[in-house]
Amino acid sequence: MTRIIMSGCNGAMGRTITDIVKEEEDAVIVAGIDIADSGENDYPVFPSISECNLEADAIIDFSTPKILEEILTYSEEKKIPVVLCTTGYTEEQLARIEEAAERTAVLKSANMSLGINTLMKLVQDAARVLAAEGFDVEIVEKHHNQKVDAPSGTALALADSVNEAMGNPYEYVYDRSQRREKRAQKELGISAVRGGTIVGDHDVIFAGKDEVVTFSHTAYSKAVFGKGAVSAAKFLKGKTAGRYDMADVIAAN
């Protein structure tokens, strides 16, 4: 049985994960962390993780970058592995995550879905063939109108996958409205769309002479991210200090 602390339990993803875990035979949420207790949870809710005194095997954080330091400090002190699902971290926070991984097990992923993590591998393979032949690479992501960060962490992760496969030659360009010039060969454009209730769409476009190859992923429900987060928590149970990602979870299944 994997005992989980759910940080951000009363947010949309927290509620989704709560419902998913209810159907799991080998996982249980023992505590939630949220600034407000809705009174609807069947587990205790603490306004701060530092106030949580219950034993757990893993923390899932689907909250806000603002409480990252508190989450990591608790994880380090209690030696409880943590799954970081939040996006929008600063460079300083990313460095802090790497530092924490030296003392506790940390799994960070911009997107928890199995499909997206498979897509990252596919676009790397495609880049080695198509980008090597001069195809331009563009990424377009679409999300609901309540998402505050842009571009999405997933779009950046996909861009990094392509860039790493090619030896990191690309410059990321997020807005061409102020540019009056032709597209540079080593430019990787990332565009963001915000509207309605779009859960998450990502297109990776390889545009060459007279042909275009597009890799697409569409999430129809937040459940795909929640299921991945729960799988990651189960995977991290008992793991030693280190930096993990969803590729490790997929390989273990």
Secondary-structure blueprint of this entry?
Elements (H helix, E strand, L loop, with lengths): L1 E6 L4 H11 L4 E7 L11 E2 L11 E4 L6 H11 L3 E3 L6 H10 L4 E4 L5 H17 L5 E8 L9 H13 L5 E3 L13 E8 L5 E9 L2 E9 L3 H14 L5 E3 L1 H7 L1
Parallel strand pairs: 1-2, 1-4, 2-3, 4-5, 5-6, 6-12, 7-9, 8-9
Antiparallel strand pairs: 7-10, 10-11
Helix pairs in contact: 1-6, 2-3, 4-5
Would you give an account of this structure?
The chain has helices at residues 12-22, 68-78, 91-100, 114-130, 153-165, 223-236, 246-252; strands at residues 2-7, 27-33, 45-46, 58-61, 82-84, 105-108, 136-143, 171-173, 187-194, 200-208, 211-219, 242-244. The protein has 253 residues and is of the alpha/beta class. The chain has a seven-stranded parallel β-sheet with strand order 3-2-1-4-5-6-12, with helices on both faces. Strands 8-9-7-10-11 form a five-stranded mixed β-sheet, with helices on one face. Helix 3 (91-100) links the parallel strand 5 and strand 6. Helix 1 crosses helix 6, helix 2 (68-78) packs parallel to helix 3 and helix 4 (114-130) packs parallel to helix 5. The longest helix has 17 residues, at 114-130. The radius of gyration is 19 Å and the shape is elongated. The model has no long low-confidence stretch (mean pLDDT 94).
Keyword list:
12 strands; five-stranded mixed beta sheet; 26% strand; 253 residues; seven-stranded parallel beta sheet; alpha/beta; elongated
DSSP summary, beta strand count: 12
Stretches where pLDDT falls below 50 for ≥5 residues? none
The percentage helix is: 25-40%
What is the overall shape?
elongated
Q: Order of strands side by side in the largest beta sheet?
A: 3-2-1-4-5-6-12
Give the rounded overall mean pLDDT. 94
Residue share in β-strands? 25-35%
